[in-house]
Write a structure and sequence with these properties.
Blueprint (H helix, E strand, L loop, with lengths): L19 H15 L5 H18 L3 H8 L3 H10 L8 E5 L2 E4 H26 L3 H11 L10 H31 L9 H7 L1 H24 L18 H23 L1
Helix pairs in contact: 1-5, 1-10, 2-5, 4-5, 6-7, 7-9
């Protein structure tokens, strides 16, 4: 298993050089709009846009594929179940089970949307350092101070969560290799047996996760970390020309889709 979720890939592309706050907001807007437009032309436009973003980000295609692999079963489940749960023109029927044309189209549409969501989210983490993303989230959540909620705490939780993902995955792989070296076969037997085979992995993984959390807590205490202190940053976030260009492009992109949807 080789997963790139939550990992930053160093580079000097258009996306890498964008203000992380702008990048975060624009990707969130694109993802929300992705599920609001209900014309097939919008999916085609989003697919082209995603391909362009992958190209200009200079992220290896192999890394993008690896980011999809852990969630392929969700895509497959979405594609295969939708045809059975939507009314419409029946193209196949057996007993109480019916497959409809509308269900197939909805299944394909939802699968493509989820696929694009995964890729767009991955591009955010691929092109943004964890600490920079945490700073962006902290800045965007500053209005929460009026409700006596510390945005730095939320940003720190997100940052630590993203940092833990690759570490946890690496430890999972090491435990799996250790169990396989002892003769464990994870593909042997029926579904129940396969689930039971993973028990010797889950418990050590949980213990290692708690150990990591405790070590991190002690390290933060040793450095006198307190959540209410005002902290300086090595690099201040600042919008540049490329950020304004990106905002304008996304605005025109969504405006075009709105016009097309109103006309069709």
């Amino acid at each position: 298993m080789n997963i790139t979720l939550g990992q930053y890939i160093d580079g000097d592309s258009f996306l890498h050089n964008m203000d992380s706050r702008v990048k975060f907001i624009l990707i969130v807007i694109l993802i929300i709009a992705l599920f609001l437009f209900n014309i097939y032309l919008s999916l085609f436009a989003y697919t082209i846009l995603t391909i362009i973003l992958i190209y200009i980000s200079k992220i290896p295609l192999n890394s993008v594929i690896k980011s999809i692999k852990p969630l392929y079963w969700i895509l497959l489940l979405t594609l295969l179940t939708n045809p059975f749960f939507h009314e419409g023109k029946i193209i196949f029927s057996y007993s109480i089970i019916s497959v409809t044309e509308e269900g197939i189209l909805i299944g394909i549409t939802m699968t493509v949307r989820l696929l694009l969501l995964i890729i767009l989210s991955s591009l955010l983490t691929f092109t943004t350092k964890t600490i920079v993303l945490a700073d962006a989230i902290e800045d965007l959540l500053k209005p929460l101070k009026y409700f006596k909620i510390n945005p730095h705490t939320i940003a720190m939780i997100v940052s630590l969560g993203l940092r833990f993902v690759p570490t946890t995955i690496k430890e999972f792989e090491q435990i799996v290799k250790a169990q396989k070296s002892r003769g464990m076969d994870f593909d042997d037997g029926n579904l129940i047996k396969k689930i039971k085979n993973f028990i010797p992995i889950i418990f050590p993984l949980i213990l290692l996760t708690f150990k990591r959390a405790e070590e991190l807590s002690l390290a933060m205490e040793a450095r006198c970390y307190t959540e209410n202190k005002i902290r300086t940053r090595r690099k201040k976030l600042k919008m540049t020309v490329i950020d304004y260009k990106a905002v304008l492009f996304v605005f025109l992109f969504i405006l075009t889709l709105i016009i097309l949807q109103s006309c069709i």
